[in-house]
Amino acid sequence: MNRYTKNAPGVWVPHEKFASVSHGDLAEIAVESKTEVRGRSRLCVHPKETDRMQEMFIAFCGASYIRPSWHADRDESIHFIRGRGKYVFFDADGKYQCDVRLGTYDSDLPFYLRVPANRIHSLIPLSADIVAHEVAEGPFNRSVTHFPAWGPADADAQSVARFTEEWAYAPVSALDPVKMTRISEEAFQCADRLVYIRRSDIERLKAEVPLTRRKRIRILIHPNTDHTLHEMLVVYTKATYVKPNLHIGKDESLHIVEGEADFVFFDDRGDVIKVVQLSATDRTKDFFIRVPQGVFHTIVMRSAMLVIHEATPGPFLLADTVWAPWAPSDANSQACESFASDLDRAIERGFTL
Q1: Is the pLDDT at 338 greater than 70, yes or no?
Q2: Hey, which CATH number is domain 180-348, 2.60.120.10, 1.10.287.110, 3.40.50.300, 3.40.190.10?
Q3: Pairing of strands 296-301, 216-220
Q4: Pairing state of beta strands 260-266 and 252-258?
Q5: DSSP label at residue 318
Q6: Rounded to an integer, what distance in angstroms lies between the CA atom of residue 39 and that of residue 155?
Q7: Any idea of the CA torsion for 213, 219, 225, 228, to the nearest 10 degrees?
Q8: What is the mean pLDDT of the chain?
Q9: Number of C-beta neighbours around residue 9 at 10 A
Q10: Is it the case that residue 350 has pLDDT exceeding 80?
């Protein structure tokens, strides 16, 4: 992991401006998790602990214990990349409320879970290895995480073993389909606060996206535009054009769930400064990119369909996005095609437009 520096046991941080992650990086932290005392290792992709969106890739070994906890007024999410696990939710007295089993995108299980603020939860590993992408509201603050008194402490090995055994084999909740309302041609809004997404939900989007005018559609997971953590599952087609833009005061991230794309960064004049090849399955490419604030960027589709887990701090404000003055509007299809062709040639010959 030459793009990351180890700054604590089981913790790696980026030392590049454009932090990206490959499946090879995940394999390395998965191996390391087996030798760490707590059975976990993490790759942080946020630039600093004060960032508005904290984001990391965590590897758990099958023996990991994740103590029950809740986060005061802060949502978080988990996106499974490898393995299986069960999130169990409790009330304040430790009584069972519900659970959600999670697996990979290719499984029949939900691969993504949004955990609402103030809900007590614990992850129970159900496989020898788990690797997951976690997103949480920042800045990092230990005081917002609380551990109920009835949850076994990490050092209490016997109580931890009993807790893990009990909840690994406890009955599994039946999961109803996620409630969504279509709020526009391009967007579905989740109605529930506890949100889990399966591949079948994505297939529904894939069936709809060719029918949209701009060839894009998304599931909005955050409850409203004012929320401080925005997440969505987005589907594009190869015909989708995304006008280059930058964001003021906030990063965003893209996790490729299905398909391939080139992610392109520009300087203020419109010259290409970096291209990151992204793929959900090609081990020679990255599958995740963290987009720093204040840098113009776009994404170029390289597959018939592209599915993305996108995250950014909220609230949504139109003024936070600046559209590149040197790029065409998507209303001008001929100009968009010309821009896309010029961009492809620039990428091929080493970034000179």
Answers
A1: yes
A2: 2.60.120.10
A3: unpaired
A4: unpaired
A5: G
A6: 13
A7: -140
A8: 95
A9: 11
A10: no
Q: What are the tokens at 249?
A: 């005061």
Residue extent(s) of CATH 2.60.120.10 domains in the chain: 4-168, 180-348
Tell me the C-alpha distance between 47 and 64, whole Å. Answer: 27
What are the φ and ψ backbone dihedral angles of 260, each rounded to 5 degrees? -140, 150
Q: What is the pLDDT of residues 169-198, one digit of tens each?
A: 988 889 999 999 999 999 999 999 999 999
Residues 57, 4: Cα–Cα separation, whole Å:
12
Please name the fold of domain 4-168: Jelly Rolls (2.60.120)
Interval 297-312: pLDDT, tens: 999 999 999 999 999 9
H or E stretch at 180: strand 180-184
Q: What's the pLDDT tens digit per position in 54-79? A: 999 999 998 899 999 999 999 999 99
